[in-house]
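Narrative of accomplishments. A recurring question from our advisory board has been how the design workflow behaves on a single, concrete structure rather than in aggregate. To address it, we present the structure tokens for one chain from the evaluation set, followed by the sequence designed for it. No filtering or post-editing was applied between the two.
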């Protein structure tokens, strides 16, 4: 696709949203939901949950099926549109909306907020991360829980340095090139999307930043949260130099 003459640059997830579930088809969401429920269970959470940066709603829909009262928001209206359609088709009640994780406001407060699968890694500046943590704190009820994950440099170095993927289906397809720069810890993914025209493609550029354990500890320590815990996403034990993703649980004071 890269030899097309007309290249239209578009916003992240403007077109990729329609392929997102195919892109993420390696994830066992049911196991992930099991882990989430196990991690928050000791805190005896209430029923009102917010999934912020919800993507196409796969997590929120599963959690709603399990009895949690779910609100789910994402910055991309295209992702939210697909999430709403999935929930309607599966006859699951989730309140969806469009919102930025750093500024989303609501007349409600929540018992649990989740921000998963790289949501935080899209925040490239420390100030934006602190804005998100402050916002989440204000949205939580006393004693509420924020559960988020964070991709590490090891994951990016292992899986995304010079990564290339081509995907095609009846609706079109994309070509992906991802490169990771260890110095800046930035992973840039360029998706070139088929438009159905021989001469034209659309291009989305996604940039994420990987964070070390010391960074995550610093974010937590600088936040208003009363306590926090960082574990390895795979083992659900203490993180190590082999951790590719952290799970972070932060608790608001009562």
């Amino acid at each position: 696709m890269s030899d097309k003459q007309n290249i239209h640059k578009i916003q992240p997830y403007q077109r990729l949203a329609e392929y997102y579930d195919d892109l993420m088809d390696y994830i066992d969401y049911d196991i992930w939901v099991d882990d989430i429920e196990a991690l928050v269970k000791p805190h005896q959470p209430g029923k009102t949950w917010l999934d912020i940066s919800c993507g196409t709603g796969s997590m929120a829909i599963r959690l709603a099926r399990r009895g949690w009262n779910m609100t789910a928001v994402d910055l991309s209206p295209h992702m939210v549109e697909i999430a709403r359609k999935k929930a309607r088709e599966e006859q699951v009640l989730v309140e969806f909306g469009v919102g930025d994780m750093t500024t989303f406001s609501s007349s409600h407060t929540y018992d649990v907020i989740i921000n998963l699968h790289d949501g935080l890694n899209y925040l490239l500046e420390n100030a934006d991360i602190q804005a998100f943590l402050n916002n989440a704190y204000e949205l939580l009820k006393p004693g509420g829980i924020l559960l988020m994950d964070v991709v590490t440099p090891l994951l990016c170095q292992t899986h995304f340095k010079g990564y290339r993927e081509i995907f095609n289906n009846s609706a079109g397809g994309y070509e992906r090139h991802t490169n990771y720069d260890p110095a800046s810890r930035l992973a840039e993914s360029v998706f070139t999307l088929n438009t159905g025209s021989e001469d034209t493609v659309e291009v989305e550029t996604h940039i994420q930043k990987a964070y070390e354990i010391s960074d995550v500890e610093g974010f937590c320590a600088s936040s208003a949260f009363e306590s926090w815990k960082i574990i390895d996403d795979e083992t659900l034990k203490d993180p190590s130099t082999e951790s590719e993703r952290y799970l972070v649980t932060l608790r608001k004071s009562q």
